[in-house]
């Protein structure tokens, strides 16, 4: 029993030290959007998941009314009745791109969020999405955009935000048919090609969609092609810097791989710390 208490105490000390180190490194351009329907205990747990405390970040609340405002046209089943998903946004130096991580999100992948964020005009930021229990994550984009606006002090274009939500929904729907990864890659490559080549006519856009789908060995229905075309027409008309969007898209896969490797390295480091402590304690009590 005493042995277990010592181990527990040492682990708590290690976590506290790690948390304090992160706090020192934390900047002032950090915002957390908390779901308004979370309990006080759940909000505290979310902040811990994000690795921050109340006095380190600006905190805003996202209500179900906010979500309904941003997700115009979405069904009640898609939106839900409560705002649970929460987001952390930290601004990064220009050109860094987007780093995305999620916790307890089941339906939306990290890359889906990143792609939609680029469409909304969110750029150069570290983003985390979390919930106290398993959620689809569909409504979390609202909190991300609101947190980014709070951090930058600037409003994102309303049409861009609405289009980003439509993109996320469409990617999910197509993903249900062909798989999340394939759907995400398809939408990202189509968007990148159309914007980079500054393609404007529906006929040319349609051909790009068909060509890229063929390259990825994806079979789309005529309805799906029409849906993607409609989305791309909207994206092409947004008042956004095309060069910036393309650069952000180019960095998504690379940055997500960095996040993945960093998490593995951190887990390995933590395990080595535990092993060292246990080894030291074994020597003492041997």
List keywords for this structure.
about 290 residues; alpha/beta; 5-stranded mixed sheet; globular; disordered N terminus
Short account of what is shown:
The chain is α/β, with parallel strands linked by helices. The protein contains eleven helices and five strands.
What is the element layout, followed by pairings?
Layout: H1 2-25, E1 30-35, H2 40-50, E2 58-62, H3 64-70, H4 76-79, E3 86-91, E4 98-105, H5 110-120, E5 125-135, H6 140-152, H7 158-178, H8 180-196, H9 202-215, H10 222-236, H11 242-285
Parallel strand pairs: 1-2, 4-5
Antiparallel strand pairs: 1-3, 3-5
Helix pairs in contact: 1-11, 5-7, 5-11, 7-8, 7-10, 8-9, 8-10, 8-11, 9-10
Report on the architecture of this protein.
The protein is an alpha/beta fold and 286 residues long. It is built from 11 helices and 5 strands, in the order H-E-H-E-H-H-E-E-H-E-H-H-H-H-H-H.
